[in-house]
Design a protein that fits this description.
Helix content is 39%, strand content 19%. It is α/β, with parallel strands linked by helices. It has one domain (3-221): 3-Layer(aba) Sandwich (Rossmann fold). The strands form 2 sheets. The protein has a 7-stranded parallel beta sheet with strand order 3-2-1-4-5-6-9, with helices on both faces. The protein has a two-stranded parallel ribbon with strand order 7-8. Strand 5, helix 4 (128-141) and strand 6 (147-152) form a beta-alpha-beta unit.
Length: 224
């Protein structure tokens, strides 16, 4: 099938990862980026970028959304230092608002949501972020998309020059980069940006029996 993908969060590490794989994949026909600010370091004929400031209302984008069949939702923030109310708005409310708009435009979408290892599907965790991520996953999986997949990577090693915007993330990556060749054998909790991007494309192309995908699943699905 020909994939026409929308990416939310292409200026972040994970969003850039799936964007680079979309560019390289011959089965991806076009990519629509919904960004608050322009993506400066990646240009390609497949890419159409819309700079959209008001993430509280996507209704004006419905005609554009209707031209696509996959959504890679990679937009997210670190919960460190955030109040629960604020994190809820930027994680649950924003994600569901975007998903509802995409679904209204075209119910044949495959929707991929990047969550994280440790997300709590019961929504009862003492960790605020785990509860809210779990609530977001549950709401997305209840929506009548063609298919929905929740990606829960653990440690993600950035490749192909990709960098995180979060400084302390980059400090961690800098420390572990020299020994990544050893760490990558722990496939149950470690993946990389290339594998994550490929896996997201592959579930759109081929489907997957699992709806919630941990690092080991991501690494397996990434192999063509």
């Amino acid at each position: 099938m020909s994939i026409k993908a929308i990416i939310f969060g292409a200026t972040g590490m994970v969003g850039q990862a799936v964007l680079l794989e979309c560019i390289e994949d011959g089965g991806v026909e076009s990519v629509l980026l919904i960004n608050r600010r322009p993506l400066e370091n990646i240009k390609h004929p497949k890419i159409k970028e819309i700079i959209y400031a008001d993430f509280s209302d996507f209704s004006s984008l419905l005609p554009e959304f209707s031209k696509y069949n996959a959504c890679f939702f990679c937009l997210g923030v670190s919960a460190v230092g955030m109040r629960e109310e604020e994190y809820y708005k930027t994680t649950f409310e924003l994600t569901i608002r975007a998903a509802e708009a995409v679904l209204k435009a075209n119910s044949s979408f495959t929707f991929c949501y990047v969550s994280g290892s440790g997300t709590d599907s019961s929504e009862k965790s003492k960790a605020m972020w785990a509860r809210i991520k779990g609530k977001t996953e549950n709401a997305l999986m209840a929506m009548p998309f063609k298919a929905t997949y929740m990606f829960r990577p653990g440690y993600i090693q950035p490749l192909k020059g990709i960098k995180s915007k979060v400084k302390w993330y980059m400090a961690v990556y800098f420390v572990f980069k020299p020994i990544y060749f050893l760490l990558k054998s722990f496939k149950s909790w470690i993946t990389d940006t290339t594998s994550l991007g490929k896996a997201m494309i592959n579930v759109v192309r081929k489907g997957c029996g699992k709806k919630i995908l941990e690092s080991r699943d991501i690494n397996e699905i990434a192999v063509d």
